Amino acid sequence: MEKVAVVGCGTYMDQGYGCPGEWRCLKAASQGEGKFEAPSSVVAFVKCQCPGRAVLPTLGMAAKLSQIKPDKIYLSSCLAGALPGCPYTGAEELAGILQEKTGIKVIMGTHDYH
Ligand code: SF4
Fold first, then answer.
1. How, if at all, do strands 72-75 and 40-48 pair?
2. Would you say 84 and 9 are in contact if contact means Cβ atoms under 8 Å apart?
3. Is 38 helix (H, G, I), strand (E, B) or coil?
4. pTM higher than the cut 0.90
5. Are 10 and 82 in contact (CB under 8 A)?
6. Distance (Å) from CA 39 to ligand 1 centroid
């Protein structure tokens, strides 16, 4: 089973509109639905916090402390498809930084649930 890390938009999550930390990303991963090709094990769930600079070191710390390197990093659907978009680091830019610095493939989005 693939080991994955999920990064959610912390600002959106904190505002409580049915945030991704509740179930959507986790259900999609466990069921192999949405952007997950097969049931996957979520080994880290990192909350981005404005302006987004801490995501990379936080992901690194999660991998270090858990001693599990994820096979893929997923940007949550609420982050990858944010409307209005992130005023700081856009999802594409964040994905590029994470992919370049970690060498781990980054997938845009997690689920299609409403
Ligand atoms: S920097 Fe952007 S993606 Fe990160 S928490 Fe703030 S608004 Fe969300």
1. unpaired
2. no
3. coil
4. yes
5. no
6. 27
Beta bridge partners of 42: 4
Bond from prior residue into 20 cis (ω within 30 degrees of 0): no
Give the CA distances from residue 88 to residues 58, 79, 114, in Å, rounded to whole numbers and listed in that order.
Answer: 18, 12, 25
Handedness of CA 45, 24, 31, 90 (dihedral sign): negative
Buried b (16+ CB within 10 A) or exposed e, 2-26: ebbbbbbbbbbbeeeeebbbeebbb
pLDDT at 17 over 70: no
Q: Taking a C-beta distance cutoff of 8 angstroms, is the pair 91, 84 a contact? A: no
- Which residue is closest in CA terms to ligand 1's atom 2? 86
Ligand 1 touching residue 14 (CB < 6 A): no
Nearest CA to ligand 1 atom 6: 50
- At 53 the three-state DSSP class reads coil
Residue 57: alpha-carbon gap to chain centroid: 14
The model's pLDDT over 21-37, given as tens digits with 9 standing for 90+, comes to: 778 999 999 999 999 99
